[in-house]
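Risk register update: the risk of archive-format incompatibility is retired. Evidence:
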Amino acid sequence: MSADVAVFGGFQNSAVAKTVDLVKAKGGKVTREPSPLEAFIEDPNGYTFELIERRGRISEPLCQVMLRVGDIDRSINFYQQAYGMKLLRKRDEPENKCTKATMGYGSEDESAVLELTYNYGITEYDKGNGYGQIAIGTDDVYKTAQVVKLFGGDIVLQPGPLPVINTKITACLDPDGWKSVFVDNIDFMKELE
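Archived output:
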């Protein structure tokens, strides 16, 4: 279940340690004890979650989703060109034998981001059956599908309305096989009413 890591933040006053204590008290599994700013826990399904303390104004507690990729530059280019994300940061971590790229539509203080992690020498990952998809809002699912396809994405669900709820979506795979669904912004807001 190591294909992805969801990261939660927004902790203040060393709340990472307090959250870890709460997880332990509830019988949860801590896989890496807290440092001053982070800790790792595991949910009952075996998914890893990193608890981090973020600085500044935080609009939501979900910080990032991490995907492991086989070629960091290919993935950065794909997410920039096909998904319209910005490269916020890229850093090589030789001590951890990986390179990480943080991608997003805004800063990490404004919204959740996508972390792409390339582990040295690993070009493929078993997707398992626990990962579902990342959902991203768009103003036009038809144009989005065209752009994704233009930059090498595989469209696995042609754009259009879903039966019954009528929300327009399209689904695609990135070059590493990770699935994303683009949802029409207006239709999605109607679903929430």
